[in-house]
Design a protein that fits this description.
heterodimer; A: mainly beta; 6-stranded mixed β-sheet; 3-stranded antiparallel β-sheet; B: alpha/beta; 7-stranded parallel β-sheet; 4-stranded parallel β-sheet; 14 strands; globular
């Protein structure tokens, strides 16, 4: 099966699925209507969720809209599902301040 | 009746504002008047109630925020007339003071105090008699053709998912640009959902003073989250946001801020504060809580609001007419009764944003002219929520 994803900015390292992807599905990633690349989904990724299109090291910024949406908490491979299990926010983190006290 | 381009049929109020509805508003000054307001609204045609749990035992800045929000709703041009009800006396938020401010618009306003009236039954009778007389007057008003520049267009999003930032928010933003370019005003809120999107927002500010005001508001909101000493994940983004694929507040923000389109931000105003007369996009400093943020927007006089919602929210403000749109086909199929505009073809078929925006723009003008939203027909009034900045004491 083929699944589809959209890339919002050329600097991004994640794309957004606009159909469900099963594990092993080929995902075609489009940028402004044109196919940019194809890659395999490493696991099931639901509609609307993100797929990594480049390797992201632990601690590196995850980029969407050409801007950081958080930091990788573990190494992410192309084709991986990118969500709360492997990235975290850098904003409004009162928990980090509370832990320091 | 065929309307001229960029016009709608509205009710011109004595102060020049234009209503898109012509309700008698039963406005509760305190929670202990809620039942009476609801009873009278049930009994009379063309009447809606605004009720809430506040108006008493709040610290001073907080009670004044409640006061300002209630006054703003009374002044909103969608109310043709207003009856304000309280039960005894609330320092800083009496029905008399609220009505005094609303009366400055020139619309008919009456006060019913339950104690002065001699209890619940007499007060109900007084409110129904006053309502009967106001409704005879205001229902004699006719809709007139007015230009779209008379609109104050509110924009908001909620139960967002990744389709919101890729489709429905862009559609809303395009409509903001259309309305502003024709001389109208728009209000975007939800300061929490600007965290992470500062660079984009600052570039849109008309000058440095406005940019500084905006950055200060965003910083203050983040400090509130930090002071709470907890991780805001799970709250922002919410559980339904995460289900929809949004991983962090930054990601949510970068999608949410697209609702303001490309229009310049002409000013930043406080919660429930009136906006300026100049056409353009205004930012209101509100939390991301949907009910609280749209209530702030309604208090500033917005007649109509576009609510972008990938997950198809049930939200509807009782007085400011709420048009809900979604870019997620699956959500729309599940929640067809709560969604007015479907823009799922943007992602599924590649429909250009400008084309989908024409669909929303038409819906805005038709709804402004009297077409009922699904929520109005179903009487789903769920989104009047006054923001709080203090504790109950």
């Amino acid at each position: 099966m083929a699944a589809k994803a959209v890339l919002i900015d050329l600097h991004d390292n994640v794309a957004t699925l606009i159909s469900d992807a099963e594990r092993g599905d080929t995902v075609s990633v489009t940028y402004q209507g044109k196919t940019k690349m194809r890659l395999k989904a490493n696991r099931k990724i639901p509609f609307g969720h993100k797929i990594a299109i480049a390797p992201i090291k632990k601690g590196e910024q995850v980029l969407k809209y050409g801007t950081s949406i958080g930091v990788a908490t573990k190494a992410i491979k192309p084709g991986d599902h990118v969500h709360i299990h492997n990235i975290e926010s850098q904003r409004g983190r009162g928990d980090l301040i509370a832990a320091k006290k | 009746m065929k309307l001229k381009k960029d016009t709608f049929l509205g009710y011109i109020r004595p102060d020049g504002q234009v209503g898109v509805r012509n309700y008698l508003l039963m406005l509760s000054g305190t929670l202990y008047a809620n039942s009476l307001c609801e009873r009278v609204a049930d009994a009379l045609d063309n009447t809606i109630a605004i009720v809430h749990p506040l108006g008493r035992c709040q610290v001073w800045p907080d009670i004044r925020l409640t006061f300002k929000t209630l006054v703003g709703h009374g002044k909103n041009p969608n109310a043709g007339g207003v009856i304000v009800v309280d039960h005894f006396k609330e320092a800083g938020c009496t029905a008399d003071e609220i009505a005094h401010e609303i009366a400055k618009t020139g619309k008919p306003v009456e006060v019913v105090n339950i104690r002065r009236a001699g209890g619940a039954i007499n007060a109900t009778r007084d409110a129904m008699k006053a309502g009967l007389s106001i409704l005879r007057k205001i229902t004699n008003m006719k809709r007139e053709e007015v230009h779209v520049s008379k609109l104050i267009f509110g924009v908001n999003c909620g139960t967002s998912d990744t389709t919101s930032g890729l489709s429905s928010n862009l559609v809303v933003g395009e409509c903001v640009d259309m309305i502003v370019s024709k001389g109208g005003r728009a209000i975007q809120a939800e300061t929490t959902e600007m965290m992470g999107g500062e660079d984009f927002m600052v570039k849109k500010c008309v000058n440095k003073r406005v940019a500084e005001k905006l950055l200060k508001a965003i910083k203050r909101m983040e400090e509130r989250a930090l002071e709470a000493g907890c991780d805001i994940r799970g709250t922002q983004p919410t559980g339904d946001n995460i289900e929809g694929g949004l991983s962090t507040i930054e990601e949510k923000s970068l999608g949410a801020i697209k609702k303001g389109g490309k229009s310049k931000i002409v000013d930043v105003v406080g919660y429930a504060d009136p906006i300026g007369k100049k056409p353009g996009l205004y930012i209101m400093d509100t939390p991301g809580h949907g009910g609280e943020s749209i209530t702030g927007i309604a208090a500033a006089g917005a007649q109509i609001l576009a609510f972008s919602t990938g997950g198809c929210h049930t939200i509807n403000h009782p007085l400011m007419i709420t048009i809900r749109l979604s870019g997620n086909k699956q959500s729309i199929q599940q929640m067809i009764d709560t969604t007015e505009v479907d823009v799922s073809d943007v992602l599924l078929k590649g429909t250009p944003i400008k084309v989908a925006a024409q669909r929303l723009y038409r819906e805005i003008l038709e709804t402004a002219s009297g077409k009922m939203t699904k929520a109005e027909i179903l009487k789903e009034y769920n989104a009047f929520a006054i923001h709080r900045i203090g504790v109950s004491i």
